[in-house]
Amino acid sequence: MTTMASNLTLAHEPVAAPARWSVSRGRDRLFYTGMSAAVIAAVFVGFARTYFLRPYFQTAPLAPLLHLHGLVFTSWVVLFAAQTALVAGRRTDLHRRLGVAGAVLGALLVAVGATTAIVSGRRNFAAGHSGALAFLAVPFGDMIVFLILATAGILYRRRTETHKRLMLLATVSILAAAISLWPLAPMSAGPVAFFGITDLFVAAGPVYDLATRRRVHPAYVWGGLLIVVSQPLRLAIAQTGAWLAMARMMLG
């Protein structure tokens, strides 16, 4: 218990970034601002027809829970972009204040995401789509991975180099749902396609580190592995009898 308390204390202590991770702030601002713009574009393209521009493509009203889901997830992406812009503009004081709202929003995102997955899965299963039982592992996996990365990012919020990488990975970890809805033919391949494109977002950070620092930060190594390894793992778990029984119980 004492060791755990010490570790958490260290996580909150201001720690200067090692010299090997210090590079031009201008390049860092450009990279993280570019990544936030790419995330916004990915989400907008994915959900344009079903949420952002829905009146132009569909006449059926959106269920209240799905409205809430869209609002919460969009708010997280907007907050991530705003936090990135604040750091780029050297407004770290406001960035830290908004961090409290980010922690609350992150917890709400997990709760709403899991609830929406169950409700949507229950509707699909009742309509005769037996694959809904296995597919439930995909959004549940997203929520678990996001929760781990976002929590780690919050705990290491005073270690700037670690914090910004973990929060980027946490945001990237929930992109699969939007990417799966991109109006592209390869998306018909299912998880292989949308997980593969998500992994390109994951790889962007390590590639940038290698290009600018000639080494990859541990946050990208372990956080990136968590995302990538979880993808085939959840697909494998989804086919097990234990998961199907649990999913059947959750979906009623």
Break the fold down into its secondary structure elements and pairings.
Elements: H1 2-12, H2 25-52, H3 54-57, H4 64-88, H5 92-126, H6 131-135, H7 137-155, H8 160-172, H9 176-179, H10 191-213, H11 218-237, H12 241-251
Helix pairs in contact: 2-4, 4-5, 5-7, 7-8, 7-11, 8-11, 10-11
Verbal overview:
This protein has 252 residues and is an all-alpha fold. It has one domain (24-251). Helix content is 79%, strand content 0%. The protein has twelve helices and no strands. Mean pLDDT is 90; it is low at 1-16.
Q: What is the number of beta strands? A: 0
Mean pLDDT: 90
Round the Cα radius of gyration to an integer and report it.
19 Å
Order of helices and strands: HHHHHHHHHHHH
**What global shape is seen?**
globular
Q: Enumerate how many helices there are, as a single number.
A: 12
In percent, how helical is the residue content?
over 70%
Structural class: mainly alpha
The N- to C-terminal Cα distance equals 40 Å
Biggest sheet record: none
Strand content: under 5%
Low-confidence stretches: 1-16
Q: What is the number of domains?
A: 1
Summarize this entry quickly.
With 252 residues, the chain is mainly alpha-helical. The chain is built from 12 helices and no strands. It has helices at residues 2-12, 25-52, 54-57, 64-88, 92-126, 131-135, 137-155, 160-172, 176-179, 191-213, 218-237, 241-251.
